[in-house]
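User: I'm designing a mutation panel for Reverse transcriptase domain-containing protein and want to avoid disrupting the core. Could you give me a predicted structure to guide residue selection? Please restate the sequence first so the numbering is unambiguous.

Assistant: Good idea. Sequence first, for numbering, then the predicted C-alpha cells:
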Amino acid sequence: RKELKICEAKTDKSSIDEPPEVELKDLPPHLEYAFFEGDDKLPVIIAKDLSVEEKTALITVSKSHKRAIAWKLSDIKGIDPEFCTRKILMEEDFEPAVQHQRRVNPKIYDVIKNEVLKLLDAGLIYPIFDSP
C-alpha cells in the first residue's frame, strides 16, 4: 500500500505566469470556449446561450479569481502529481481478452443484488446493457 506523503510547496511558475499549450476539442453545441488571456491562452468552457452581459460578468469574476483554478496538476498545492497520475503497466505482447460473466453462489446472490441496487440508486455505477 502506498502511503500519502506531505509535499512541500514548489516554487515552479504557475500556469498563470506561463500558460500551457492546450489542444481544444470539439464541444457539444450548447457550450463554447472563453479565454482569460488573449485568443488562445487559459481556456474555460461556458454555456453558449448566455447573454453578452452574463458572459462578460462571468469572465470578469472568473478572471479575478483565476489563481484559484488548477490549470494543471502542479497548480494544486499540497498534492503530489504522482498521486494523481496512474500508469498501467502491461507486457508488450499483451492481447486483450473478453472474460465470461461469473456465476454467484445463490446464498449470497440477494445480498449482492441489494448492494448493486444501492450503488445504482446512488449513481456510483451504471448498467451495461450489452452484458449477457
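For picking mutation sites, this is relevant: Residues 106-122 form the longest helix (17 residues). Helices lie at 52-64, 81-84, 106-122.
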